[in-house]
Structure formats: C-alpha cells, structure tokens
DNA sequence: TGTTAGCACTCAAGGAAAGCGAGTGCTAAA
DNA sequence: TTTAGCACTCGCTTTCCTTGAGTGCTAACA
C-alpha cells in the first residue's frame, strides 16, 4: 500500500490535533480540516489504510484515531514544519541569557532551568566531556604542621582543592618536593593508571611521604572519577503531572521517580547530531516508554559539552520544543564561544 | 470538660490505627481494642466529647473518627511511646554508615539518602552554618602569563579555587605580594564589608593589580554569599504518591512541586531542640498544610550543622520516624566528632 | 452518675440499568 | 474512486437502588 500525499496530510492533521487536545480525532472532524471538500467516508477509508500501515491507532472501536509511535516518528522526520523562532521568541531567549551564567559549575543547572521556562515541559541538564579529563598540575600549600592544602588543576581548567590532615608532622619544606614528584608522575594520565604508578614509588620514598602522596593521588582520582557520572539536574519535573496522560497516579509516580530519584539514567545523545528525539517505545528505560525526550547539546568550552533534555508525553509539541531548544542550545554555544574562560575577554583562542 | 485517662487512651488508639490504615475508626472497633469490657455506646459518648474538644474529626456523619492536627499534637507530645531502637535497627543504621561519607560536599546529600531508606518517607537534607563563614586565607598561584589560580580557604575548612584569566600580563613575582595584600585586608570579614575595603585600596595600588584583586575578592564574595542559600537535596520525593492521601493528582503535584522545584523553602528548625515536628497546619508553607515534617540536625564539624527532614502525610508514623531519625542524627554527630577533618584516620583502625 | 442496649437515621460507596452520542465499517449507488 | 446511508459498537454519564458501617439519642440499668 502506498503512502499518498493525502494520507500524509491526514496523518499530520491527526498528530497535530492530538498534540493539542490529547483527544482522538474522528473522520468527520478531519474532513472539516482538510482543504477541498472530501466526505468523511473517504477519510474513513484512508484512516483504515493508515491504521493498517501502523501509523494510527484506535483506543477502542468506536473512538477516533490517535497517532502510534511510528506515526509520530514519520511526523517528526517528514511532516513537521521546522519553523524558525519568531523575533519575540528569540528576544525572550536572548533576554534570559543576558547576565547570569558565571561559575562553570552552576552553568549547567541554570541552563536547564532556563530551558524549562522556555518549553514548559520538564527538563534535565548535565555536562559531558568529549575527551577524558586528566590532572594538569598539582600544588601543595602549607597551612600548619597538622595540615596542608592540595590544589589540583584539571585539564578542563577546573581547579579543585581540599584541606588535608597529616598524622605525622612533615617539615613544610618537603611540600614543594612532593608537588614536583606529583607533577612529574601523576599528570596527564587516566585515573586507573594512578594506582599502579603509586605502587611503583612505594619503595623510593620515605613512608611518611608515601602516605601523603597516596592521599593526594586518591583525591585526584576521586575528582577524575567523579566526572564520569556527572550530576544531573532536573527542572519542573512535577509539571509532568499536568498532562492528562499522567493523571493516573501510578504512571505519574513511575515517571517522577525516574526523573527525580534516578536522574542519572536519563538518556544522553547517542549521535553527534545537534538534536535527537526519542519517541515513546524508542526509549530504553521502561519508565520512559510512554514519554518522549528531545535532547540538544551545546559547547561549553574547555572540551566540555552541555546537555539539555526535554521530557513530555509522546504527544509533546515536537515542533515548538525542537525549534526553541535548538535555538537555545545554539545561543549557549555562541555565548560560551565568546567567553571561553569565565571572565576572559575575547582575543585569540589558545 | 476534662481530658480523662480513658479519653487519652481512646485518642491514642484512634491515632495509631489511623496511622496504620488511613481509615477512620468506629466506636465498635475501638471498644474491641480497649482493655476491659466497655460497650461501644460508652465509647461513642467519649468520642463525642473528644470531638467537641477538638482532638478528633469526622470525615462525614456516618463515618468513624480521625485525628485532627490538635489530636496528633497531643499524641506526639504526650501519648506516643518513645521507644528506643531495637538492636537490629541500630545495627542497620551503623551498617549503612560504615565506609562512605568522605568529601564534605557530598556528605549532606548522602546522609539524606540514607535517612530516606531508613524511614521510607521522602527526606530532604541541607547544611547550615552556626556562625558566618569568612575567608581565612588567600593564595595566588602562577600558571602562565595569561592566567593564575586563586585559592581561597574558608573558616569552615573548605578550600575553593578557580582559574583566573588576566587581561594585561602581570609579572609572576607580583602574585605573592598580592596574596599578602589580600591576606592582611580581606580575611575574617563578612562579604558585605569587602567592597568597601576594596574601594579604599583603589588609589593605593596600580590599576592592573586593582583589577585582579577585584576579581579575586569578587570570587571570594561569591563563595561566602553562596553559603547563605545552601543547596537542598531531596531523596525519594516520588514516594509521597504512594500514600492514599496523595492519590489525588493535584494534591500530589502541589507537594511534589514544592519538594522538587522549591526545595529551598522546605522548613528548617526554629529551635535548638535535637528534633522538631511540624504537624499539618503548623507548617508555614501552604503546600505542606496537609503534611507533617520531622526534622533533626547533626554536627558535621567545622561549626557546621547538617539538617535532615522527613516529609509525610499528617498521619505519618511519628514514633518510628522520630526514633530512627534521632538515632541516625546522633550517630552522624558521633561519627563526625571522631574524624573532625575528612580523611583523618582514627587511631587503631585498620 | 456513669454505663449499656436498642433503635431510627445518615451517608458514602458500589453496582446495575438506561440513555447518549461520537465514531465506525460496510454496502450500494454515483 | 468517492459518496451517502445506515446499522452497529462501545465508552461515558446519569440515575436509581442497595448495602452496611457508623452515628446520636433515649430509656433502662447498676
């Protein structure tokens, strides 16, 4: 059976109406929305075909049609109008970006919140490293005879530090030497190689030193480790409950539990495309089988990539969400391009 | 009218049954649970009195009685048996505390999660400073001619650091001098005084220095500021939906929205008591008027105090929650007492 | 005076029956 | 290929009824 132009048009009407109202659409209503005069009976024939081809479904015999996941997919791939944002919409986004966004740590969460208010669906946000992070430099600063500060500079320009307590007094003059040791042996290598290297040193340095080195290396390891499962932030998760498909408390709970207490398992893009859409059963997690996710990523500088995901019912307003989200992500990328390092004005990039 | 011993006993039975089943309890059922033989008619008389005094309510004329907020309050204050934890329960808590809890930053969130699994109600967690945090020490480390690292040690022993870009090259030798300047003028003072001090220096140092000093002081100010509205973590928020009183999706959404997207407004203790209970309408926030909150705090060292809150329906199991939570909080305090600074081993431990 | 048995009354909850109406599939004619 | 017509399906809503748990009140009892 062939997917004629008219069938596509009908599908588009059904999808968009369902996105709008969450109600099945009948042949008569479709006939009225079609250009030219076509009787509802004709539409019914077409609907039967579309159903047979798997693009439409019927909740029950005497109800209208609703799109299937396959139907949504076709809509997203072919039928959806990728309208650019209006001036006002762009202005709104640009406004929300003005000021704000300083501390790299908070950028990701804040971006998620902004996206949330932009699309009116729950969102989540995270950061991702394109390449593995390593330690670039160590620095040990004396505090008193009972403690010192370990400063660790990472390859993505983040700098982390922690106060370390010492059990046995170490003369302060030893710290620079130990820094040197760390900088020559424990930089630019992945976390998993650190322990091996450390063992190699165990009989070359005095035990007191070794203990401290161990502690600093362990701290660095934690920092690198920590990065793999970076924090995920959600915004407006409870909004999911205002959609009629989640009026059922058990469904709502399932999804809320996933978004709030299992954030880490929310999907991440599997392709390099600037935007990816997962429709209903295309999702891996069971909790998302009845939801759709739109994901976009942006460059955050320092070889890092930010991720924003939008979660909604399968009948989510793909066209609007996709348009706003991609513009937003582009704006963020543009913005971070300008100020590669926080507070650094533009000039040549390293 | 007097609150006789028998009335109290009846109230206790009603509260505990309602906590257990979420169903109103009738006179006959109460009569059966009372020691000695008393007819349901007598109970009915007592119930009428208790209702008049405001301790009990009736959902509708032909239903049994349920406790009012006032009834719960009396129960919590006088009637509840403050049973200590059993050996097994204590062991379970101790087990969950073993290992874990290193990085001061993550302690709070982790503690909240642990509490969650302990009480089976949603929890939230935050940290609080007993006294204002100030900067204890600054350190500026050279990186290259385009940037340096600012390390800021805070009075609560946290150490924060960030990479700073410089616009105009500053000879590296200037950094120690600037550190000194910072350490003499910008330590141990509250954030709001910093700007004034900085202005005072504006004509005493060369403009390039001033710019950098400004940036470091600004960074420090952010750190201190940041502290006032510390992050709040929630665990198991979606669990609230499994309670019958929140089967209603709108109620559930109201509370979820509050717990997930308005965490910052969750209540904090108003007294110094080790545990505080807020019952239903005693809560300030509208969203919590139909819920109860049990809060406990623990010492985290460094003049900081951790807070754990448990959120549930008004009929939450106060006795169990209070017992577990207070034991847990005490255990945490004990634990942090032992290892004041992270990573300091206790003597004699493997 | 407090307690109890008895009784009429109330009211939410659950189920069956009936009517409504949106929407369908099929047939036969244009 | 399109259309009009028509019988049929089936979820929803409303109405009505029944059931049963629980009450308040009264009058008798210890």
Describe this structure as you would to a colleague.
The structure is a homodimer of 350-residue chains. By secondary structure, the first copy, chain A, is of the alpha+beta class. Helices cover 44% and strands 18% of the residues of chain A. The first copy, chain A, has a 5-stranded antiparallel sheet, with helices on one face. A 3-stranded antiparallel sheet of chain A has the order 4-5-6, covered by helices on one side. A two-stranded antiparallel sheet of chain A has the order 1-2. In chain A, helix 2 packs across helix 3 (40-53). The longest helix of chain A is centred in the middle third of the chain and has 22 residues, at 207-228. Chain A starts with a helix and ends in a 12-residue tail after the last helix. At the A-B interface, strand 4, strand 5, strand 6 and helix 10 of A face strand 4, strand 5, strand 6 and helix 10 of B. Chain A binds a DNA duplex (30 and 30 nucleotides) through helix 3.
Alpha carbon gyration radius of chain A: 27 Å
How would you describe the oligomerization state of the chains in this entry? homodimer
Q: Using the coordinates shown, work out and report the CATH topology of the largest domain in chain A.
A: Beta-Lactamase
Q: Main β-sheet of chain A, in a few words?
A: 5 strands, antiparallel
Largest interface: A-B, 45 and 45 residues
Question: How many DSSP H or I helices of chain A?
Answer: 11
Supply the CATH superfamily name of the largest domain in chain A.
Answer: GAF domain
Helix content of chain A: 40-55%
Quick one: overall form of chain A?
Answer: elongated
Secondary structure tally: strands of chain A: 10
Overall domain count of chain A: 3
- The proportion of residues in beta strands of chain A is 15-25%
Helix-strand string of chain A: HHHEEHHHEEEEHHHEHEEEH
- At CATH level 2, the architecture of the largest domain in chain A is 2-Layer Sandwich
Q: In terms of per-residue confidence, which ranges of chain A show pLDDT below 50 for 5 or more consecutive residues?
A: 340-350
Q: What average pLDDT do the residues of chain A reach?
A: 88
Strand order of the largest sheet of chain A: 7-3-10-9-8
Structural class by secondary-structure content of chain A: alpha+beta
Distance between the termini of chain A: 58 Å
Q: For this structure, what is the CATH class of the largest domain in chain A?
A: Alpha Beta
